[in-house]
Amino acid sequence: MRIILLSDDRIRFEGGPGGLSIEADSSERAYSPFHMVASGLATCVFSVLESWGEQAGASSRDLALEIGWEFADGPRRVSRYEVILEWPTLPENRRSAVARAAALCPIHATFETPPEISVEMAS
User: Fold this and answer.
1) Domain hosting residue 98, numbered range
2) Is residue 119 part of a domain?
3) Of 95, 81, 106, which Cα lies nearest the Cα of 13?
4) CA-CA-CA-CA torsion for 21, 54, 98, 42, nearest 10 degrees?
5) Mean pLDDT of successive 10-residue segments in the chain (123 residues)?
6) Contact status, residue 98 vs residue 119, Cβ threshold 8 Å
7) Does a structural domain hold residue 120?
8) Which of 5, 21, 92, 123 is most exposed by smallest CB count within 10 Å?
9) Which residues are registered as beta bridge partners of 13?
10) Per the structure, how many domains does the chain have?
């Protein structure tokens, strides 16, 4: 698997054998917490679609995702994620099913119904 940092607000996720690598289009680009959250979303969506593909008889060898995000103020946060699925060998009649399957990712659901977050000092 490979995560490619395309910009400060966009990544590309590609599957494949072996471990995970994180690459950047520039040596100046650092892997930020925002990249990390988007990588979690990408990994989750990819694994759901890879499993869906196995069940549906659709190879996920050429499946890739691009995830971009937008910021908002008050408080400063990510206000929107855009997930673009690239699956060239997927038959046209399966595209809407894939979009529905992608929404089943638990990280996607976590964003839709945010968890409570508690911050405490250790004693």
Assistant:
1) 2-112
2) no
3) 81
4) -20
5) 95 89 90 96 96 92 96 93 96 92 93 93 94
6) no
7) no
8) 123
9) 3, 65
10) 1
Decide: residue 90, CB within 10 A, 0-12 exposed, 13-18 middle, 19+ buried.
buried
Rounded CA-CA distance 14/2 in Å is 5
Smallest Cα–Cα separation from 39: which of 114, 105, 93, 119? 105
Helices 95-102, 33-56: inter-axial angle, 10-degree rounding: 130
Distances (CA, A) of 111 to 6, 62, 102, 120: 23, 27, 14, 22
According to the model, what pLDDT value does residue 14 have? 95
Parallel, antiparallel or unpaired: strands 21-24 and 2-7: parallel
The pTM of this model reads 0.92
d(CA 60, CA 25): 24
**89 found inside a domain:** yes
Give the CATH number, domain containing residue 80. 3.30.300.20
Measured CA angle at 20 (ends 62, 96), to 5 deg:
35
